[in-house]
Amino acid sequence: MASYIAAIDQGTTSTRCMIFDHSGGVVAVNQKEHRQLFPKAGWVEHDPLEIWNNVRQVCAGALAKADLVSSDIAACGITNQRETTVVWEKATGKPVYNAIVWQDTRTDEIVSELGRSEGQSRFQAKTGLPLATYFSGPKLKWLLDNVNGIRARAEKGELLFGNMDTWVLWNSTGGPDGGLHVTDPTNASRTLLMDLETLQWDPDICAEIGVPMSMLPEIRSSSEVYGQFRERGVFAGIPIAGILGDQQAATFGQACLSPGEAKNTYGTGNFVLLNTGTERVISQNGLLTTVGYKIGDNDTIYCLEGSIAVTGSLVQWLRDNLGMIGTAPEIEQVASSVDDNGGAYFVPAFSGLFAPHWRSDARGAIVGLTRYVNRGHLARAVLEATAFQTREVIEAMNADSGVPLKSLKVDGGMVVNELLMQFQADILGVPVIRPKVNETTALGAAYAAGLAVGFWESEADIRSNWAKDKQWDPAMTEDLREKHYANWQKAVTKTFDWVD
User: Which residues bind ATP per the record (predicted)?
Assistant: First the structure.
């Protein structure tokens, strides 16, 4: 009998395969980074073929590390960087262009044109999303309008569109030879093209944005058997039975399964999700309404989301662009060499500001600099930027939901940084809790797949698997907390109106 579940986690900077046992424990991990392509200022791209090749390598590597064979795996789930947009030829599987990454801002003018007199809220009642460069629909329109000849080909039914989940699934199940063109509601809800109530593509919005509906994948639930891995490859015959966008997967993996439960994932960006149950709460405070998950035929669960574009990638920028640190973990040591930020605040609006501001005209700024500020202060300001941006989102969430957050579950690569976690608790004024299984994104996708094939019986199994690793309690005085936050809010205003 198969004793394990696998998950493919196709992220912004890397792809990995993880294998879990029934308790949710990690059996094996294999990971491979892919290139970040920056052809122009504000443009961010990935090579889809490089990513698909990496998927195959990490799956083989994970099986080898665990000394397992495909028959040991009951099912596999897929989780992915959302909004990243790929268009490819149905007949060959060849992408017509690089994948346009969620951070990319080239669609700024398209977004403004689509808003017309109604502005950012034009499609929000149906989609839960403001008009922004973040989402897939405007990226797809840019491709159709700017890559030679592809609109005509798309209208003839020769081209397919997908976020990265669809790209991985289509290739995994055969590609040009019968590959499944499918997505789930968590990914579809990030396109600006799906009706949140019906969980179907909206013909009127597709027409307004200029997207031929023949390109769009079928929307199915987040947890069901879609098909099997193609006969060639190490995962041959394994059912693919779960799809969740990365942040929804982390919410599921954190067992935030009841209304009012929230998590924050600290990755390339930060993403706070609050479970609102079966109620679609349309934000009045700059948040997104999104599908949290849909398990088989069960009711759809919705979330409020606060999306922050640049957090972990700011540490990478400090390492790769400035050379101030040699490795990402080194930032904690450098930041710990000083007691505070020395009056410096770093607002990383590299691709504009996401929630709750939604200012595509903003660009990054370091403010409050004096001769006193040194390398340690800047390193600390980089970490504190993540915590300050999280507080902005939490305050918007509290206002929308009417229920103040009492504690925050955290996960992702940055939560090993204890200096950051303590400052996060200090600036929020609530406990911050890290689970034993830190990489909950892959775990959530594994849970979705496992539920579909009966590996786990119910969501109660997910709750019982969750366990606390460490908790940080606030230690900062109220006066100091509010002084720091007021300075941060002032710093944010200095980034506005930079792009004409």
Answer: 12-14, 268, 312, 316, 413
Looking at beta carbons, which pairs linking 358-362 to residues 24 or more positions away fall under 8 Å? 358/120, 358/130, 358/132, 358/286, 359/495, 359/496, 360/105, 360/108, 360/111, 360/132, 360/133, 360/499, 361/496, 361/497, 361/498, 361/499, 361/500, 362/495, 362/496, 362/497, 362/498, 362/499
Flag whether 13 is marked binding.
yes
82 is in an annotated binding site: yes
What's the distance, Cα to Cα, between the start and end of the chain in Å?
61
20 near 443, Cβ under 8 Å? yes
- When pLDDT is cut at 50, 70 and 90, the band that residue 1 belongs to is low
Q: How far apart are CA 206 and CA 225, in angstroms?
A: 28
Residue 407 has pLDDT above 90, yes or no: no
Q: What is the DSSP letter of 413?
A: G
Check whether 374 is labelled as a binding-site residue.
no
134 assigned to a ligand binding site: yes
CB within 8 A of 317, min separation 6: which ones?
Answer: 310, 348, 350
What is the tens place of the pLDDT at every residue in 244-279? Answer: 999 999 999 988 898 888 899 898 889 899 888 998
Q: Residues 287-310: what's their mean pLDDT?
A: 92
Has residue 405 been placed in a domain?
no
* 82: in domain: yes
Task: Calculate what percentage of the chain has a pLDDT beyond 70.
Answer: 100
In a domain, 498, yes or no: no
Q: What is the pLDDT of residues 470-480, one digit of tens each?
A: 999 999 999 99
Print the domain residue range for 231. 4-247
List the CATH number of the domain containing 206: 3.30.420.40
Q: Quote the pLDDT of residue 167.
A: 98
Residue ranges in 173-215 assigned as alpha helix (H):
185-188, 203-209
Q: Confirm or deny that 246 is annotated as ligand binding.
A: yes
Q: Is 14 annotated as a binding residue?
A: yes
Span 167-185, pLDDT tens digits = 999 999 999 999 999 999 9
16 is annotated as contributing to ligand binding: yes
- pTM score, two decimals? 0.85
Classify residue 392 as exposed, middle or buried by CB count within 10 Å of its CB (0-12, 13-18, 19+). Answer: buried
pLDDT digits (tens, 9 = 90+) for 125-154: 899 898 888 899 999 999 999 999 999 999
204 assigned binding-site residue: no
What would the two tokens of residue 354 be? 């996401």
Q: How far apart are CA 396 and CA 389, in angstroms?
A: 11
Q: Is 417 annotated as a binding residue?
A: yes
Domain assignment present for 147: yes
